[in-house]
């Protein structure tokens, strides 16, 4: 189940400003108490993801980034790879261990794989995203980035070593099983209340989004045979387009961005 905090962030993407009373009305009968909603807002504000002005809450740039961090990866699905690799190399002192760990995790979420101990590579140019992370973590002086072609060292044979594609394949299979069951449930419901459909879409996007944080979106030539990613995307789009019709029946609820 998608966390209450993330649900609220998504609602704020649809409704740029909202009061606590509006959120309480939305969650009326949805197992979250008014106090739990206030607590979630406090946590989001403390993390710097939302701001509070004149009793109304809105997203900060950091909050928006939390929800759109994998949008760049989605764009890679339709691009033809030009054969260029992008490397991130670092030598970060132990005194910055926490920031180093954060950088490593963020690189993985962006789709980078670990080539050597402190060398990560990606087939996609994500220089801007990496530089933003480096500036936020204060690590720019310890990191170098390189773009080019390998003249020695075959990458194809190391793909399964660099990226855990077996695990990611399993995640896609789990999503397909869940989505197939969800499709059956939806087909039995000729009418879905708009906010119910909205939260169904949030869960749908969250489930696939969690896989995207691990899937490097490799070019076709590096993907294993019978890779389940395209099938998962087809099922996602089918469920999304069915649910969004019910959301759009409610005036003021806008279409979600994760198509």
Automatic annotation (TrEMBL):
<dbReference type="Pfam" id="PF20803">
    <property type="entry name" value="PaaX_M"/>
</dbReference>
<dbReference type="InterPro" id="IPR048846">
    <property type="entry name" value="PaaX-like_central"/>
</dbReference>
<dbReference type="Pfam" id="PF08223">
    <property type="entry name" value="PaaX_C"/>
</dbReference>
<dbReference type="InterPro" id="IPR036388">
    <property type="entry name" value="WH-like_DNA-bd_sf"/>
</dbReference>
<feature type="domain" description="Transcriptional repressor PaaX-like central Cas2-like">
    <location>
        <begin position="79"/>
        <end position="150"/>
    </location>
</feature>
<protein>
    <submittedName>
        <fullName>PaaX family transcriptional regulator</fullName>
    </submittedName>
</protein>
<feature type="domain" description="Transcriptional repressor PaaX-like C-terminal">
    <location>
        <begin position="163"/>
        <end position="245"/>
    </location>
</feature>
<dbReference type="InterPro" id="IPR011965">
    <property type="entry name" value="PaaX_trns_reg"/>
</dbReference>
<dbReference type="InterPro" id="IPR036390">
    <property type="entry name" value="WH_DNA-bd_sf"/>
</dbReference>
<dbReference type="GO" id="GO:0006351">
    <property type="term" value="P:DNA-templated transcription"/>
</dbReference>
<dbReference type="InterPro" id="IPR013225">
    <property type="entry name" value="PaaX_C"/>
</dbReference>
């Amino acid at each position: 189940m998608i966390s209450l905090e993330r649900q609220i962030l998504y609602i704020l993407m649809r409704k740029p400003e909202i009061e606590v009373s509006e959120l309480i009305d939305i969650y009326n009968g949805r197992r979250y108490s008014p106090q739990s909603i206030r607590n979630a807002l406090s946590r989001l504000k403390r993390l710097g993801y939302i701001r509070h002005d004149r009793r109304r809450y809105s997203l900060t740039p950091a909050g928006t980034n939390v929800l759109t961090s994998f949008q760049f990866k989605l764009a890679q699905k339709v691009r033809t790879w030009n054969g260029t690799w992008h490397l991130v190399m670092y030598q970060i002192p132990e005194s910055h261990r926490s920031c180093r760990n954060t950088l490593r995790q963020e690189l993985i979420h962006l789709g980078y794989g670990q080539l050597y101990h402190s060398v990560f590579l990606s087939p996609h140019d994500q220089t801007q995203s990496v530089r933003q992370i480096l500036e936020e973590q204060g690590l720019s002086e310890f990191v170098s980035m390189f773009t080019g072609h390998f003249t020695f060292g075959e990458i194809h044979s190391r793909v399964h070593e660099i990226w855990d594609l077996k695990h990611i394949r399993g995640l896609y299979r789990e999503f397909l099983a869940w989505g197939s069951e969800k499709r059956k449930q939806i087909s039995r419901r000729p009418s879905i209340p708009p906010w119910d459909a909205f939260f169904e879409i949030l869960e749908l996007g969250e489930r696939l989004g969690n896989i995207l944080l691990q899937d490097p979106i490799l070019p076709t030539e590096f993907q294993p045979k019978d890779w389940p990613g395209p099938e998962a995307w087809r099922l996602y789009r089918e469920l999304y387009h069915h649910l969004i019709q019910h959301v759009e029946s409610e005036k003021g609820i806008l279409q979600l961005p994760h198509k």
